[in-house]
Please model this.
Amino acid sequence: MYILGGTSAKHVAGTLATQLQQPLLQTTFKRFPDDEFYVRLLEDVAGEDIVIVQTAYPDPKIVELLLMQDAVHDAGAKRIIVVLPYFGYSRQDKKFEDGEAVSAKTIAHHISLHADCVITVDPHKEHILKFFTIPAYSCSAVGSIATYLKEKEIDFVLAPDKGARTRAQEAASVIHCDYDYLEKTRIDGTTVKITPKKLDARGKNVAIIDDIISTGGTMAQSIAELKKQGAKSVSIACTHGLFVGQAKEKLLSANCDEIISTDSIETEFSKVSVANCIADTLMKTTPRIKK
Ligand code: R5P
Model:
């Protein structure tokens, strides 16, 4: 078995290789002057199980993934396991309006072409797993995030919307504290409305937990609501930290005390690794793999 780390998941691939005591596959990656990608495997993978680790975001990383899958398939790998620390396009998981592409399905179909199994972390909605035409599994980094928050003496967890409530509940059960959720209405891609609600947050060290921070709008408004209600400190945590545009500035000017993300997308805020939950899922779904 080899672990093949793509350019968008070098840290996760390296940690997985160490944890599972499997070698990293040697490769050449480069970009041509016109920015097209080039992949070459430098080792013989015929008859081997290959775990390809690549975050499918942003768009060029999806092309890189498809090329890696194709190279491994053509070279005669026995089994191809695709690990997506973050599955881009997963939020367009249905037709919200007639005529739209269901992007999660489109990308899942293409990834399924040369793969035997796929594992992803904290998908926005679990039902996207059904879009893959091969066995697909999810795992959650919420436990690892909660362990980090516990060390920071967090004593209240908040979900910014009802959809994230079970994540907050799970984190709160690890920390042994209370949790609640806010009511959020999305106006458009960059604007959300948080309906004020009485929270038991006065004097507490609060962590807001969500699956994704994209523009930071959801978190910025939730931080404002908590500060208004007298929270002592407000940290924000997510699995997938996209931090697009001015998200960082928006969050800092909302007086956020700490920003925490995983390494599913590698940023300055990646303080928790998704490698543990991926390794556990690999061991459960691929019996020959042991830590
Ligand atoms: C949506 O339901 C997600 O769980 C996140 O709340 C959302 O993606 C965050 O987006 P933004 O940071 O742009 O508010």
Observations:
- Residues 59-74 form the longest helix (16 residues).
- The chain has a mean pLDDT of 96.
- Residues 160, 163-164, 192, 210-218 surround ribose-5-phosphate (CB under 6 Å).
